[in-house]
UniProtKB/TrEMBL annotation:
The lineage of its organism: Bacteria, Pseudomonadati, Pseudomonadota, Betaproteobacteria, Burkholderiales. InterPro entries: SGNH_hydro, SGNH_hydro_sf. It comes from the Bacteria. It comes from Paraburkholderia bannensis. This is SGNH hydrolase-type esterase domain-containing protein. One of its GO terms (molecular function) is hydrolase activity, acting on ester bonds. It holds the Pfam family Lipase_GDSL_2. Residues 124-286 form the SGNH hydrolase-type esterase domain.
């Protein structure tokens, strides 16, 4: 015959276990559950003096190139030119470290299971492990789902970190740049090229807008004086690997219309909140390198910088290419984009970040082009 006391203890332990697991999953499933916005955010009158806190949510378009944990391959992010090939976040940190604080450089994050456990017990967490700035949560390969969902929960985990120093984030900036891994794949673009209202691309776009909207709401609820930048989607029809595809005006118009759905959704988010800025990435790209012609053929311009450097919309690790061999933005692209970003931040939010001058751009890029000439000379000598 079973011992009644022992049975009750077993049942009680089981019940406690169920309640604990249920509570943990509820905590993980609902952003901000059991955690109210910090009171000090609402009561403070001004942010402390010092550099502006700057955080990033996104994918490989915003993960630092000099990460050696995730991006250790020798052919990645510039290959032989990697030492002088910089991501825009790295350019920003190097040119304006006295005014912008992206967090300390270091190894951040753990494996996904450890991050899950840490978060469940109320500790700060992030995944995967990478070498980057502390406030840069962007991860190569991330999709829009990773802003709020497992495994990365980028927005949720960033806000948890921000909540530990709420006053420091008054007047800070969170930039969200994501979506290309959802929408930019060849198969999705091909569906759009044939039908701008195609069901799958439309669902992917709407899913991204929903995730980004929830991330913005979470940030703005917890940190009502923190600014948010929403970067629009680029078109992979402008990538040299796709130049042989969609060579008709109708196909390109359909792709643009589909991508407009994404950008217009971001514009609508920004239109209702003075602390939210939409940054039109395709318009910026067109202002420099242009676009396909009316027949959908690649007819791009060349960007010419004063030392006589010509940067074309081609792929290669040499800094004369806009895009790297591994399909990410090259150092010229990222440096000019940083110049553009600072101007937009100042204009939209009344920040007083020192603009990046054209002379600074040239000085920053000089080592990249100098290394290019060293490699070219070495190749010439070796061939003799």
């Amino acid at each position: 015959m079973a011992n009644p006391r022992r049975s009750r203890r077993i049942l009680l332990a089981a019940l406690c276990g169920v309640l604990a697991v249920t509570g943990l999953f509820a905590r993980l499933g609902v952003p901000g559950l059991l955690r109210k916005p910090p009171v000090s955010v609402a009561t403070a009158t001004q942010r402390p003096a010092g550099p502006i806190r700057f955080a990033v949510l996104g994918d490989s378009d915003s993960q630092s190139y000099h990460d050696t944990l995730m991006l250790g391959g020798p052919d990645l992010r510039g290959g032989p030119w990697r030492a002088t090939t910089w991501q825009w976040t790295e350019v920003l940190a190097r040119l304006r470290s006295e005014q912008i604080d992206p967090g300390a450089w270091g190894a951040w994050g753990t494996g996904k299971y450890r991050a899950f456990i840490d978060e469940a017990r109320g500790a700060l967490s992030r995944t995967p492990p990478k070498e980057d700035y502390r406030y840069d949560f962007a991860v190569s390969g991330a999709t829009c789902h990773q802003l709020m969902g497992l495994t990365q929960r980028q927005a949720i985990r960033l806000v948890a970190l921000m909540d530990t120093e709420p006053l420091a984030w008054r007047g800070g900036v969170v930039l969200i740049r994501i979506g290309i891994n959802d929408i930019g794949g060849h198969d999705v673009m091909d569906e759009l090229a044939r039908d701008r209202h195609a069901a799958r691309p439309t669902a992917l776009i709407d899913g991204c807008l929903d995730a980004i909207g929830k991330a913005v709401t979470l940030i703005r609820t917890h940190h009502p004086d923190t600014h948010v930048v929403l970067v629009g989607i680029l078109s992979n029809a402008d990538w040299s690997a796709e130049f042989d595809n969609w060579q008709s005006g109708a196909a390109i118009a359909n792709i643009d219309a589909g991508l407009d759905r994404f950008d217009n959704g971001l514009r609508n988010l920004a239109a209702t909140d003075r602390h939210v800025l939409f940054l039109d990435d395709r318009a910026w790209f067109r202002s420099l390198w242009g676009e396909r012609d009316a027949q959908g053929l690649p007819r791009y311009k060349t960007v010419r910088l004063s030392p006589g450097w010509a940067i074309t919309n081609t792929s290669g690790n040499d800094p004369h290419n806009a895009v790297l061999t591994d399909s990410h933005a090259g150092v010229v692209w990222n440096t000019l984009w940083t110049q553009h970003l600072i101007s937009a931040l100042n204009s939209a939010f009344g920040l007083s970040i020192k603009p990046v001058s054209d002379d600074e751009v040239i000085a920053f890029l000089q080592p990249a082009f100098a290394s290019r000439h060293r490699y070219a000379n070495a190749d010439t000598a070796a061939s003799k």
